[in-house]
Design goal:
The protein is mainly beta. Strand 8 and strand 9 form a beta hairpin. It is built from three helices and 19 strands. It has a 14-stranded antiparallel barrel. A two-stranded antiparallel sheet has the order 3-4. Strands 10-11 form a two-stranded antiparallel sheet. The chain has one domain: Porin (Beta Barrel). Helices cover 7% and strands 51% of the residues. It starts with a helix and ends in a 13-residue tail after the last strand. The protein is globular and about 70 Å long.
């Protein structure tokens, strides 16, 4: 029965807290695809990203998240000859370069709860003005949800937790939706995750239904051009669930020559995030760039006394023209 109480104390806060039901990311500004499906292929590059995050290092049962994602865009390549209604011969591209795709796999463990799954994304991009792009994205997700509790540790063999679906593991399908606006000077996005609100019954009828809440993300950033190679980019991310538990990240990033990024972010609820990222371009290839990023959280609460902070590592490989930022504007 003591083990049952432990599970209950872990599951209930996870169901209530926004930060616990979906994994947090500190370096989402460098890979917005993780929180918005409309970002897939929006910059015209083909990107591979790996993220490893361990929250509250040193604290037993703390959240751990690992993900591998890829996103790309079908470029405007090749032309065909066609006749207009006025019998004129014109050359048109075989595709208009407006479609993007993305996918990622992930493993997210929080105490006794573990989710392992995937996401497949379709995105569509269009121009509002000469240099402003509007994107829509729809993603299909699925994951294996399980409570990792040792059945033999229960004293009461008839305990309803022993035989429910969550202890054996269940497959949960869901969908995400996003909107994304991109300009060389700014970007803005909105996304709604877990639209189906997948539900599962815990134990017998005496237990309430457990469900995944819808989550909504709104973010934006603005590039403040400075002198020479120096730039500053303030950004904000606002997230909320249907349980009305808002949380905001407010930060600023210093950018040097599009090769080095260093940022500081305040997360409401008591958190300070420092991150650094740099780009490496191999000499033998001007078309490929390798990115390394690291972020550390300092929780401004009592739990910081018994942990070594939260750490997040990212590695990204990007294929495309890296000689100009927004070179993709000329390709579509």
């Amino acid at each position: 029965m003591k083990r049952l109480i432990s599970i209950f104390l872990i599951v209930v806060p996870w169901h209530i807290a926004l930060a616990q039901q979906l994994p947090l990311f500190d370096q989402y500004l460098y890979n917005k695809f993780l929180i918005n499906p409309a970002h897939a292929g929006s910059d015209g590059y083909t990107s591979f990203n790996m993220t490893a995050r361990e929250q509250w290092v040193g604290y037993s049962g703390a959240p751990k998240t690992y993900s591998l994602s890829v996103q790309t865009r079908i470029l405007k390549r090749g032309y065909k000859i066609r006749k207009t209604i006025f019998n004129q011969t014109v050359f048109t591209p075989k595709n208009d370069g407006k479609v993007g795709f993305g996918a990622y796999v992930f493993s997210d463990r929080n105490g006794l709860i573990q989710r392992t799954g995937f996401q497949a994304t379709y995105s569509y991009h269009m121009w509002l003005q000469k240099s402003t792009q509007l994107s829509f994205g729809l993603a299909v997700t699925g994951y294996h949800f399980i409570i990792n509790a040792d059945e033999q540790s229960f004293e009461n063999a008839s305990e309803p937790w022993l035989n429910n679906n969550l202890r054996r593991g269940i497959f949960v399908p869901d969908m995400d939706f996003g909107i994304y606006v991109l300009n060389p000077r700014f970007d803005f996005g909105f996304s709604a995750l877990q639209l189906f609100e997948a539900a599962a019954k815990i134990g017998d009828n005496t237990y309430r239904r457990f469900r995944m809440e819808r989550h909504f993300y709104t973010f934006g950033s603005y590039n403040l051009y400075s002198t020479g190679r120096n730039e500053f980019e303030p950004a904000v991310l606002f997230k909320i669930s249907e349980q009305l538990m808002p949380q905001a990240d407010i930060g600023i990033t210093y950018i040097y020559d599009q090769r080095l990024w260093a940022g500081l972010t305040y997360r409401t609820g008591g958190g300070l995030i420092a991150n650094i990222r740099f780009r490496y371009i191999p000499d033998h290839s001007k078309w490929t760039a390798l990115y390394f990023g690291y972020a550390v959280d300092f929780t401004l609460s009592e739990i910081q006394r018994v942990t070594y902070g939260t750490h997040e590592l990212t590695v990204a490989l990007k294929f495309g023209d890296s000689t100009r930022k927004y070179r993709w504007l000329d390709r579509y």
